[in-house]
Design goal:
This protein is of the alpha+beta class and about 130 residues long. About 30% of the residues lie in helices and about 20% in strands.
Length: about 130
C-alpha cells in the first residue's frame, strides 16, 4: 500500500498579483515559479517572503513549498506569496495562527486595497480641474 502525501493548496492576493501555494511534507525547499527562493527577486523581497517561514521555526525545514505567482508588480507578488505560504502553514499547523496574527495580521488576511480608478475628464484618480480666475 502506498502512503499518500498530504498536499495543502492555498492562495494569496495583493493588488493585481495572485499566488497559489502547494505545501507538502519534505526537506524545506521553497520554489517560486519553478526557481528556488534564493534566486528570486531581490534581498528585501526574499526576506519579506521568508517571514512566515522564520516564524514557523523548525516546521519550515519539514515542508516543501511550491508557489506559482502571476500578475502585479514585484512587491505585490511578494506580499501575495507571503500570504499564500502563511495560510498553508496555518492549515498544516493550526497552532501557528496565533503567532502570525500577533506578528502581522496581513500574514493571514488579504489587504483589500486596490488602485483607485481615474475619474472622467481628469488625468489622475484624485486630481481636480484647476480654475483660472483671469
Amino acid at each position: 500500500m502506498t502512503t499518500k502525501k498530504k498536499v495543502i493548496q492555498t492562495q494569496g492576493k495583493r493588488k493585481r498579483a495572485i499566488a497559489r501555494a502547494s505545501l507538502s511534507e519534505g526537506k524545506g525547499k521553497i520554489k517560486v515559479n519553478g526557481q528556488f527562493l534564493n534566486g528570486y527577486g531581490n534581498e528585501i523581497l526574499r526576506l519579506r517572503i521568508n517571514e512566515p517561514l522564520t516564524l514557523a521555526g523548525a516546521l519550515a525545514n519539514k515542508v516543501d513549498v511550491s508557489v506559482r505567482v502571476a500578475g502585479g508588480g514585484a512587491n505585490g507578488q511578494a506580499d501575495a506569496i507571503r500570504l499564500a505560504i502563511a495560510r498553508a502553514l496555518v492549515e498544516h499547523e493550526p497552532k501557528l495562527k496565533k503567532d502570525f496574527e500577533e506578528y502581522d495580521r496581513l500574514l493571514l488576511v488579504a489587504d483589500v486595497r486596490r488602485k483607485e480608478t481615474c475619474k472622467p475628464n481628469d488625468s489622475k484618480a484624485r486630481a481636480k480641474r484647476q480654475k483660472s480666475y483671469r
